[in-house]
Amino acid sequence: MKAVGVVVEYNPFHNGHLYHIQKAKELTQADIVAAVMSGPFLQRGEPALVSKWARAEMALESGVDLIVELPYAFATQHAAVFASGAVDILQSLSCDFLCFGSESGSIDAFQQTFTLLQGKGMEEDLLVKGFMKQGMSYPKAKSLAIKELTTSDDHTALNLSMPNNILGYEYYKAVHTNKYPMEICTVARMKADYHDKTFTSDTIASATSIREELLHDKGDIRKIKPFLPASSYQLLQQYKETYLTYHTWENYWHYLKFRLLQSTAEELAAIYEMEEGLEYRFLKYVKTASSFHDFIRLVKTKRYTWTRLQRICVHILTNTKKAEMSSSLKPNYIRLLGTTVNGRLYLKEKKKQFQLPIISKLSAFDKEKIALDIRASQIYALGVPNLVQHQLLEMDYTKPPIMK
Amino acid sequence: MKAVGVVVEYNPFHNGHLYHIQKAKELTQADIVAAVMSGPFLQRGEPALVSKWARAEMALESGVDLIVELPYAFATQHAAVFASGAVDILQSLSCDFLCFGSESGSIDAFQQTFTLLQGKGMEEDLLVKGFMKQGMSYPKAKSLAIKELTTSDDHTALNLSMPNNILGYEYYKAVHTNKYPMEICTVARMKADYHDKTFTSDTIASATSIREELLHDKGDIRKIKPFLPASSYQLLQQYKETYLTYHTWENYWHYLKFRLLQSTAEELAAIYEMEEGLEYRFLKYVKTASSFHDFIRLVKTKRYTWTRLQRICVHILTNTKKAEMSSSLKPNYIRLLGTTVNGRLYLKEKKKQFQLPIISKLSAFDKEKIALDIRASQIYALGVPNLVQHQLLEMDYTKPPIMK
């Protein structure tokens, strides 16, 4: 059996994702789709709208056959680390293909950019440092540096200021740098732009616009119905009925505030990605901020992207220290979230080739290794009211992988 | 001018406290009453019902002339440390008398017990250790040890299982051990027992029964009216109108739960009073407890009193570590909360004799020294809804002492 791997967040799973999976199978003729999906906290430094279990269920209902968790140590990182962890896991699952969605849609553009930048690592670093000295954020500096190193040549330029092109480029780079045998392809994202805030077609809308409708005070869940598979829509409805809320940063703002107010600058400086005295800005503005959004707005400077600051806040919530992160640079387990019949057939056939242990039951696994993921899940559970917290809090210990 | 000092919590200020102040003045013929009062968290390991500012206001309305804060480092400790800090502060305020309420009401009983135990420190320690080895809590072991060392003699026995006798004995001991020139007297507590849960007379009720009525779902604030001075009653009403709640442990339970879920056993072990592997019980039961009360019930063993466990929880909330506490064994400032006209006259006359700096404005004082009190106040402020938190959060920085 052949598998095509995808790297996803499914926040929530919508028709654009469905299109991506279908195209991936069509392009590669793979027998199954294997997805590696971020757990409770996402790359943008936000809690996922609904639990990883609910999102895994959506995926399995709509064409994914095998879904595993991208550990916290990669899911909450900038593009390069995120991509490297995800690609390592897909490789460990013996995927034959990797197919990602991009604004570009042309794998040649990724290949050309990668070739042009080969051996120019030092030049790139110097340019990035130079731009950052001018006060730019890291992602902006990096995209400008790459532009400078590649635009003089005659090629279909890859626009590396687009979020999915950036991630795609990092996947491409990770596969080639590691010389993984995976074949890579890309699908152009349909119609709605990544950052689109309004619905742009009859059945495709960005996850951002779907979330906005779901989370807005006057939002109406029925309005998003055309843009999601029926099963996703139903699971979203059920989640709110069960847990009384979707998870947003504002649900965790009081915890962040509490933790900041009880911390010393020294303790905060130990948190992952907290650098250059940023802890003093955090301690200064926590007292006056009226909401999480207001807090980030106050702390923000040109130097740090909104996303980076949100990620630091996630690390404060989960109490993730520099030392702990630096000891987790390579994935060392695969947490299985769910399978279809075909997914299970694939596992049976390929399991012996896998380079990493598969965790199906937590009780049977060394909990030390997975401590950070468990902690993140438990903190995530605190985003729902006390009355319904218990089930979500225990889920990571008690729930077996979903079987479809 | 002469001053009589009192050590108080006023949670809330009621007619029993009024009686105590009036008797203290009557017995000592002092010109003013100086009170040292616990800040946001109390000796029993609980948040005060209302802020220290509201409680100071109550006191100044009812006969106290000068009120200062007992720092967190003493207010949240077992009787001996609590008493020693309080007595040091009253001495620093040049008080001529110390008058405490007790179940006994006879200062001779305190004096006799003190004399009998003089030079028996080692015997006492041995007995206490012996009883604790049998599984008893420290307070129980201590009271039994003292009983054993004193009952064979012919004297009016002091019952040291009564909470106010215990505290009184520690005041007595602190004054005499330090050879402070203060004269000590005691007033018998009126009618309602300390632990009484029902009102026992027409105008006197215990603070416990008043709190129960205030905090009970079906409680009716009007029922407590006969037992409080009118000003206290009004201030309690106003507080609820302004901050929408009184402060109870349940208001902080989600913060405690969050902090426990994000902590390692090692981090918890650094918290003050966390001993003998208790951190593992905390981490075990936080996942299943349905409320703060339920949590303490689950963690509790014969070895630890309810009060002690609650105090540890306060230290977790305020992130108070062993190292920080051990560096605060002697008071090194006096935080002024308020004065009457007479209180100000006294300050003017005596200020030069004071051995500790008086803090009236935080901005003018070294904030390092008072960091723990500020932190405790800010964490305390998180017990009210987000909407009204800001004022309470800033109060310790902006509010000058109350002037009546």
Automatic annotation (TrEMBL), chains A, B:
InterPro entries: Rossmann-like_a/b/a_fold (IPR014729), tRNA(Met)_cyd_acetate_ligase (IPR008513). One of its GO terms (biological process) is tRNA modification. It comes from the Bacteria. Its EC number is 6.3.4.-. ATP binds at residues 7-20, 101, 164, 189. It is found in: Cytoplasm. GO terms for molecular function: ATP binding; ligase activity, forming carbon-nitrogen bonds; tRNA binding. Its main location: cytoplasm. Pfam families: HIGH_NTase1. It catalyses: cytidine(34) in elongator tRNA(Met) + acetate + ATP = N(4)-acetylcytidine(34) in elongator tRNA(Met) + AMP + diphosphate. GO terms for cellular component: cytoplasm. HAMAP family: TmcAL (MF_01539). Belongs to the TmcAL family. This is tRNA(Met) cytidine acetate ligase. It comes from Niallia circulans (Bacillus circulans).
